[in-house]
Design a protein that fits this description.
- The chain is an alpha+beta fold.
- 33% of the residues lie in helices and 32% in strands.
- Among the domains are: 51-58 and 242-324, Elongation Factor Tu (Ef-tu), domain 3 (Beta Barrel); 61-101 and 206-240, OB fold (Dihydrolipoamide Acetyltransferase, E2P) (Beta Barrel), CATH 2.40.50; 103-199.
- Strands 2-11-15-13-12-16 form a six-stranded antiparallel beta barrel. A four-stranded antiparallel beta sheet has the order 3-10-8-5, with no helix packed on it. Strands 7-6-4-9 form a four-stranded antiparallel beta sheet.
- α2 packs antiparallel against α3.
Length: 451
């Protein structure tokens, strides 16, 4: 009887253990494929595709005020409020900005003025001498005419006849010399006058004036500093003509420049005002590209309104060029287009599709990132949807993307459809492991390169 009881107990124990094992395997099998994938529903919404770049806020028009003469800065002018010219001073055209010591240039003006007076006196003397020469010429001419009437005769000795002729010729020559002398004196006076004007102009250059209305954004000299004007005029002040209109100079990669065009809307932010978005539009694209470490970039000028005065010169701007916008379209995460299952994880009828997807995604760059004119093109692609514990592919046409979400179209697509974006990290713990299986180390299967 004891032996029969033991046998019955053993059979009952085996039955219980078998039931536990069957239940565990059944539950684990049901939740295997279904719960090991991360899914996201297809949603409908708006999409804005942009190209991101970095630029610098610049005044629309800047005038560099320099010095055309050398000398020491003796003083600064006064702005509209009566304060000395400094950073941020509002100035008007012809307003005095600075004064260079003009003592040497004033002496040059005085010397040139004296030389002009001397030259003008020389002209007057030459004119007086010419008058005398004209009188002598007239007298000699009349004497020679009388001598010619008489001729060499008893009334006029031959020697006297020759003397009258010689005197006339000499007076005629002296008159030509006098006319040349007065012309020379006049040219000397003109030269002296030009020298005076040049020295006066240099004296005027000692007073630095603003050429336009604007705002001083940079003062590069101090009182007592000596400026030396040689081949290049030294820069003293930088004046922004109008700070109500600013530009953003943006460096755009050559791969993206094809999607940029004048009039294109632009939005940008600056670190000075976190969270605030400024708007503008593309003005022009400069053609003088630059190359840095084999990377070619073009400078794009973005025009923006700054009536509020909040944008300051030379702020760093994070720029986004708007290259396309969609409304009321189906959207999926880019991860759903990059991910594909291993062929052995799907039903045999879908293995060929999975193999093609693995081959395609393994050769892609982060293909859903917009780049230049590629953003907005339609691409044949595949997403994988979960139907209970099974996966099946859905062919889609991928359109515009913002780098995170992509516009998709397809006959089998609908809002709310669960698409796979990745595989969950499988973990073995005390709750899911079989009580009959010893704990051992497991190696993870290599994941899809596009995951």
């Amino acid at each position: 009887m004891k032996s029969n009881g033991r046998n019955v107990f053993a059979l009952v124990a085996l039955a219980v253990l078998a039931a536990i094992g069957f239940t565990w395997s059944l539950n684990n099998g049901r939740s295997g494929n279904g719960s090991s994938y991360r899914t996201v529903p297809v949603k409908r919404g708006e999409l804005l595709a942009t190209i991101s770049a970095t630029g610098t806020v610049e005044p629309e028009e800047v005038i560099d005020v320099g010095a055309q003469v050398a000398g020491q800065i003796s003083s600064f002018g006064r702005d509209k409020t009566g304060k000395p010219i400094d950073y941020g001073s509002v100035v008007e055209a012809e307003m005095v900005l600075a004064q260079i010591d003009d003592s040497l240039y004033a002496a040059d003006v005085a010397m040139a003025n004296a030389q002009l007076q001397q030259a003008q006196a020389g002209v007057k003397r030459a004119e007086a001498d010419l008058g005398q020469l004209k009188a002598k010429h007239y007298q000699a001419e009349r004497d020679w005419e009388r001598a010619q009437k008489l001729g060499p005769s008893d009334a006029l000795a031959e020697a006297s006849y020759d003397a009258y002729r010689s005197a006339y010729d000499m007076a005629k020559a002296n008159l030509a010399v006098g006319e040349a002398a007065i012309q020379q004196a006049r040219e000397t006076a003109a030269h002296a006058e030009a020298t005076l004007q040049r020295t006066q102009r240099n004296l005027g250059y000692c007073t630095i004036k603003s050429p336009v209305n604007g705002v001083i954004i940079d003062r590069r000299v101090n009182i007592g500093q000596t400026v030396v004007a040689s081949l290049n005029a030294p820069s003293l002040f930088l004046i922004a003509k109008d700070l109500k209109r600013m530009q953003v100079w943006v460096s755009v990669n050559e791969a993206d420049i094809g999607a940029i065009h004048p009039g294109q809307p632009v939005r940008f932010t600056v670190d000075a005002y976190p969270g605030e978005v400024f708007h503008g539009e593309v003005g022009k694209i400069r053609l003088n590209a630059s190359m840095t470490q084999n990377v070619v970039t073009y400078t794009v000028e973005v025009i923006t309104d700054n009536s509020s005065g909040r944008l300051l010169p030379y702020l760093t701007a994070n720029v986004q060029f708007e290259i396309g916008q969609r409304t009321n379209v189906l959207l999926v995460p880019n991860a759903a287009l990059r991910w594909s299952p291993l062929p052995e994880d799907v039903d045999p009828e879908y293995r060929a599709t999975a193999e093609k997807a693995v081959y395609r995604t393994s050769g892609q760059r982060d293909a859903r990132q917009p780049s230049g004119q590629e953003a907005g093109k339609n691409h044949q692609d595949t997403v994988w949807a979960r139907d209970g514990s099974n996966l099946h592919p859905i062919n889609v046409i991928a359109g515009l993307t913002d780098g995170f979400m992509t516009e998709v179209r397809g006959e089998d697509l609908k809002e709310g459809l669960e698409v796979v974006v990745g595989k969950k990290q499988q973990q073995v713990d005390d709750q899911t492991a079989s009580p009959f299986t010893p704990q051992t180390m497991r190696s993870n299967r290599p994941q899809n390169p596009g995951q």
